[in-house]
Structure formats: structure tokens, C-alpha cells
Amino acid sequence: MKDIFEFGPGRADGDGTQKQVLGGKGAGLAEMCLLGLPVPPGFTIATTVCPRYHAVGRRVPKDVMAGVRKAVARLEKALGRGFGDPKRPLLLSVRSGAAVSMPGMMDTVLNLGLSAPCVAGLAAMSGSARFAQDSRRRFLQMFGNVVAGVPHDAYEHALSAVKQKVGARIDTDLDAAALSEVVARYQEVYRQHVGSPFPEDPFAQLEHAISAVFGSWESDRAVKYRKIHAIMGLVGTAVTVQAMVFGNLGVTSGTGVAFTRDPSTGENRFYGEFLMNAQGEDVVAGIRTPEPIEDLAKESPAAYRELLAIRGLLERHYRDMQDVEFTIEDGRLYMLQTRRGKRTAAAAVRAAFEMANEGLISREEAVSRVEPAQVDQLLHPSFDPDAKRDVIARGLPASPGAVTGRVVFTAEEAERRGLAGEKVILVRNETSPEDIGGMHAAEGILTATGGMTSHAAVVARGMGKCCVAGAGTVRIDAAAERFAVGDVVVKALDVISLDGTAGEVMRGEVATVPPGITREFETILAWASAIKRLGVRTNGDTPRDAKTARAFGAEGIGLCRTEHMFFEGDRITAVREMILAETLEARKAALEKLRPMQRHDFEGIFQAMEGTPVTIRLLDPPLHEFLPHEPDAVRTVAASLGVPEAAVRERARRLHEMNPMLGHRGCRLGITFPEIYEMQVRAIYEAAAAETKAKRPVKPEVMIPLVGTEKEFTILRDRLRTVAAETLAKAKVSMPIVFGTMIEVPRAALRAEGIAKEAEFFSFGTNDLTQMTFGYSRDDAGSFLPAYVELGILPQDPFQSLDQEGVGELIRMAVERGRKGRPGLKVGICGEHGGDAKSIDFCHRAGLDYVSCSPFRVPVARIAAAHAAMAERGGPAKPAARKSKVAAKTTGGKKPAAKAKPAAKAKPAPKTKPAPKPKASKPARKKSAPLRARR
Ligand code: ADP
Ligand code: MG
Ligand code: MG
């Protein structure tokens, strides 16, 4: 197994497909080399070395270090510089990168190899003592922090002291002499914290840095990040060692980051930021406020043109939005990174829609680009445009959303309060990777410094969290736990609102409105529906739910819970009267009061569902749920029904159950109180008859809950069918009478063949089925399930995502047996799992006919069902043929420098064929490029 993969202009050992081995960064660099883009040469140590490193007690294996030495020797030769050479020092960056990008989570060391004896050489080579000192102090700080754990503050302190002494406002005001003093102080900082002088041997430095990067894979923050993002199954990080290029070489140099499209909105425009005379992380760290990428046209026109050409080339090549890092060294552009751009849900939808229309990707690919989890974000409310806003500050619209919460100033506090269910907004000058837990727990994030690509902005977008960044007028006094904007003071735990789309910070709460679906999203959903096989229905109990779900594209109701109607308005009184009735006569009289109300509800639902199937479940919960228990409530109910309080108390006591979830409920109620179900069935068919007479189509399906034996079903079905037939006959209307059952008791799954001979459809009630299969009471499981997930006993909460191995096995079996009993049996699922993407994928594979979920999950389910269908046949289809005219438009107005490759094979360029090169780039630069500083 190869450990070291070299890359350089026009050549690379691996390619972009090898993320698992090279890490995302290494793979992207290799691919850009193969594309002929200007990339500083280097090599990547494979991810597979990471577990070896940890296995031997955090040591870089000897054979790997030997390989590293050889690779460095080849770099020296290629560049005409020497690692540790005092005259022409070769400087390296040591970078991390796992297969899945974890922005800012792991470590990087820049300017490595810049030992004390090399500083003069670097100064002579570049003609700038200032540059040499600046690079040295950066190296000291990064190495000290990353490798030896010296706190940032210690360095910041020393830097501020020198700045103050010489009267410098920003870092770039410091001259060579001042910087050399910073260097001296930094060396002292290191000695103080570590207890030994700074290690000046370059290979020792390199080994330490490689070790630190591998080590950072297991750092707390990286582990936490992987947990939050459910990143599993990776072996570790790769380490990329690369020749440095210098953005801090003076005013003709700079560094920046950019997205090929707007990652917030998806708009097809080049989007990014840069800083002149700066290095690496200056842009993302929010230390100096960067400039928008368009302004690079003035600062460095040739590099900007080349960057635009590369933007088009990368998009056409990857056929997706890319996020790139670049550095300009004395007017020359170098690409340092490309990866799939993280985007908001809105951006994912718009970019996918437009790329499909541009012919860059197929419609199937467009659908596959929209993550079901992201869709949720699109369905969140936004602020009411008519609501009053007390705007106190403005910042950058870094990540969309409309949130309200209480102000907290530390990530720990955000985490603590957030986990306790409080809505908080984390307010910081800037965030750092340590804050990840707090950012996750907060509703939104507000930062005072930092740009659109700052840590806060990138991470928030990745999490789908609202973020306003760089609100420059916000002055935070963390010690006093407050921030001020002008003379407005906001204290900890005060309520503020953030509008991540407008970049506004408001005092107090702002009213919200429910989300709307954009034209682009509507189209993507229509494409998804054309791909999916599974039907998507909704769980809805009211005409309003039904209307919402229809608007989101529900193809029917999979579960209408009638008991929810029992709580509406003054009906609960009639329900209680029914429960308290001492005689059958009295019970029937109370039920008669309920019937017209139920009928009216059903009419409304039928109308909203426009003739699509509506599955109505007969009463399910135990009766005690409808009775009062508190003394006050008992008194009120007794008074309103005109019965003695003692009667109410006594009935509640008699109905009390130890384990109500396993008690007198579902069809068991129907068997013992048949008149309840009879009333419901009468109401259903009266409503259906009325609608039919009004020439509106209806398709009711009656579902009997909690069946475990064939007999339970047949007894009820026979009795209720008679009621339905009578009702229809009386109304002189005919229509099919359909009775089916929920499968939610394990015994029903086992007996599915026999039950299916009688029942006309199945719907898996996976909440109960999960509860009963595991034997976990879902109301009480909260006390141990989190520990089970933590300990890895269960991969996830089985009430959130279906337990495919266990409960899923029962479902598969029941589907098979059911269809044996009744060929073509229609089968659906109506538990919470019907809206969970992973569970939907399972339902597709298990051959279900439809999933049913809450109205707001319907779009999620449509996308997930389409993904499941595509996954089954090996992924989305590629676009048929590309029209070059359309493709040319993606380069930001400029003609593409290189011809687009046919999209059908967007594979990495084979080494034998010359890769397309953007005209403006001069990738095959020979040996050492001159290193000249410009002031
Ligand atoms: P991250 O994964 O946190 O983005 P990177 O490895 O990309 O970390 O590096 C951090 C910063 O250092 C980036 O801004 C990058 O552009 C810069 N950088 C990395 N390698 C080099 C290099 N060879 N020359 C100049 N700058 C570099
Ligand atoms: Mg990077
Ligand atoms: Mg149930």
C-alpha cells in the first residue's frame, strides 16, 4: 500500500476520486494538478497512515518518515531550494484533510522550515527583510500553537505589546525591525511555555507537524464535529505537505477564498473575499476585514482574470459548485484548494435548478444535489415582512434564517442552555473551532468581526444555522456580559432576533410567517416526483393540515387520527359525557352529539384532499386520556356535565392503567365499546356520501388500529361494514367500502398472511411497532436511550430513524406474508419514520407503496423517495449531451479559456492525454520562481 502521493504541475500520483486515501484536500490538489492548474508542488501522506500513527502511540512510522525525506528531496530538486538551506530555504505547509471536509477542525502549519539561520536567506531571496521576519513570526506562532499547544493569547499578547510600542494599528504597519522584535518575543513565549528553545532542525519540525496533524484527528473538537455531523467510517486524516507560496510578499501579493456560486443564495456569480499582503488564515480568521472578490480586478487584474477562467473550468469539470483557496505571489496566481462548496438549502436548490437548466447536470443529478436534511431548512419560517423591526445593528447575511433567542457570550453557556431547551443566540467577536458545540446548540450566531467566509459563517451555513457575521458596530464586553451598539446596551439573556438573509440584528422578538416554496424548489420537487416510485402521503387530522400537505404535494392522507378532533372546541365535553355514561343508551346519546361534528371534519378533509385517498384511523388512545385528573379540572368537568365530582374521580380511577400504551386502546376499545367505532364509521360515510352528492370525488379508507389477531379485525370489520353499507344505502350513494389495518403489534406482523386475507391494506404504525418490538415504552425510553446511543448499543434513536435490522425485518416479513395472503396488497407506513430520509430509503427497498408523514415533511419525503429510487439503480443519470453555448455562460461572462469536456465523463484527466489548461495560467513554471517582494 502506497503511503506517499506526490503532485506537481501537470502530474499527480492520485486523482480527485481518491478522497478516501488522499483526503478531500489532497484529492482536490491532485485533480487540479492533472487539470494543469497552477498548484505549488508537494505530496500527501495517505489517510491510512493515521490509524497506524495512533496505534503505535502517536508516532509517525519510521518507514513513512523515510518516504517523507525522499519526497522532500525531490521537491528541493524541482524548486532549486533546500529544506533548511540558509541561502535558499524551501518552506513547506503541513495541512490536514479527511475524506469529508471538516472546516477548521484540524491543524495546519505554514512556513515550516523557516529556522533562525534561514531568515536572512529568505530576506535576501525576496529582497524583503520585513517579509522574512513576518513569515518567521507566523511560523513560530503556528508551530508553537499547533505542535506544542502554546495558547494563542500568549502570542497575541506579545504582538500587541510590540504594536503598541511602535504605534502600529494593524499587523501590516509593523516594519522589519518591529517584526524582528516580535520574533524575539515569540521565541521567548515558546521557551516559557514549553521549557525548551524552539526546535530549529527542519526535519524535526516536519515530523512534529505531521504528528500534530495526525494527532488532531482525535482532538476533542474534531471528535465532537464528527459526532454532530454524524461522520462515520473514516480511517483518519491525510497530511499534505506542500511548498509554500507567499501572499505576504508585499502589495502585489495576497490571498483569498472564493465560491464558484453564491453559497448563501445559489446565485450564479463569483463570490469570495481576499486580502492583499496577507497569508493563509488571515482571511478566514476575521483579523482584518477582507475585500470582496470583484475588487481583485483592480488590485491584481491578471490574477483575477485567470481566477475567473479557473472558476469556469472547475465548475465544468466538477459539475458542481466549488469552494477554492488561492494565493497570489507577486502577481502570480496559485490554487491551494478546491472542494465541493458547502451551501445553504436555498443555495443548493437554486444552484441545482440553474445548473440543470444550463445543461451542466441532469435533472436527476439536480434532485440528488438537494439533501433531504437540508429541505427542512427551506421550510422554516421567516420574519413577517410587515412586523416592526427594532434594528440595532447590521452585519453580513452570512447564513439565512430568522431566529429569536436570548443572548449568551460563551459557547459553553450556549451549549448548556441550548441543551436544556432554551433558545439562545451566541454573540462573539469571532468564533473558532472550539465553539462548535455551542454553535450547534444555539438558534443563531452573531459575530462582530469576520467576513462571509469566516469560521462562523462557513460553519453556520454547514449546519443550516442562522448567522449574521461581521456586525462591526457591535462592541462586546464579554467580561461584563453585555454588548453595546452606540448607546444601546444588550445584556446577557436579553432577547434579540437575527435575520440571516438581510444581515440584521433586532432587539426583542419579531413575528414570523410560515415559509413559502420558491419556483426553483417547486420545480426540483416536481422532478423528484417524476423519479420516485414511493407514494408520499401525509399524516393530517384537520382540513388545515390537509391543505398544507396538498400544497406541499401530498398524494393522500396516510393517517388521519380521529381522536385529535375530540379535543377541538367544546367537543371534549361530549366526549367526556360519553365516557362517563353509565348506560349504553346514555353513551349512544353522547355519541350522537359528536357524530355531526366528526362528519363535518371529514367533509372538510375530503374537500381539501380533492379525491385522493384518505385513510382514517378509528379511535386509538385509551379513554382515560380524555378525562381530567387534577382536582380543579375534575370540579369544572363535574359542574359542566352536571354530575357529582366523585363520579368523575371514580371513573378516572377505574380507567387508570399501569401501562396505558399496552392497555385498553385501539381495536380493544372498538371490541368493548363498538358504538364508538360505529358512530365514527357512520360519520365517515355520511361525509363521503354528502361529498359524492355534491359531485366532489372522495376516497375514504377506514383503518382499524392495534390489531394483533385476525379475529379482532374480522369482528370489527363485519360489524362496521354493515354500518357503512346502511349509511350509504340511506343516502342512496354507492362507493367501495374499504377496511384495512395498522400493523403495529408484532403478532400482526407474524400473522400478516391471515390478516391480509381479510384486510384490504396495511399501514405500518412504526411508533408502536418499534415500542413493542424493542419492549421500550416510548414515553419512558428517554431515561436510557441517550446512553444506549452514546455507548453504541444502538446506532441511533430507533424512534427517530427506523431500526432496519429488527423492526425492519418484521416489516419486510409482514410485507411478504401480507402479499401472499392478498396479492398486490397496498402497504404504507404512517409512523414518524415516514418523514425520515434513511427510513424512507428502507421503505423503498422493502417494497412499500407509500410513506406518510407530517405536512411539513412531505417535501423532504419526496426528495428522499427520489434519492432512494436513484440509489437503487446506481445513482442519478448524467445529462444526455451538453450544449457548449449554454455551458459557456457559466464562466462569469468571460469566454472559457479551455473547452468544456463532455460532461458524461467528468472523470479525472488521464495522464496520457494533456489536460485542458486555462490560457492565462502558466502551470509548468520551471524550478524556482523568483521570489521578489513588492512594497
Ligand atoms: P483548512 O482546512 O483549515 O482550510 P488549509 O490546509 O487549507 O486548512 O490551510 C490553512 C490556510 O493556509 C489556508 O488559507 C491556505 O490557503 C493556507 N495555505 C495552505 N498551504 C499553503 C501553501 N502551500 N502556501 C500558502 N498558503 C497555504
Ligand atoms: Mg483550507
Ligand atoms: Mg399506534
What does this structure look like?
This protein has 36 helices and 32 strands. It has about 950 residues and is of the alpha/beta class. The strands form six sheets. It has an eight-stranded mixed beta sheet with strand order 13-23-22-15-16-17-18-14. Strands 25-26-27-28-29-30-31-32 form an eight-stranded parallel barrel, surrounded by eight helices. The chain has a six-stranded antiparallel beta sheet with strand order 2-1-3-6-4-5, sandwiched between helices. The two termini are about 50 Å apart. About 5% of the residues have low confidence. The site of one magnesium ion has 2 residues, from loops.
**Which regions have little confidence, pLDDT < 50, spanning 5+ residues?**
883-928
Beta-strand content estimate = 15-25%
Number of beta-strand segments: 32
Distance between the termini: 48 Å
Q: What is the residue-mean pLDDT, rounded to a whole number?
A: 90
How helical, in percent, are the residues? 40-55%
- Summing up helix and strand content along with how strands pair, one would put the structural category as alpha/beta
The helix tally amounts to 36
Hetero groups = adenosine-5'-diphosphate, magnesium ion
**Rg computed from alpha carbons, rounded to a whole number of angstroms:** 33 Å
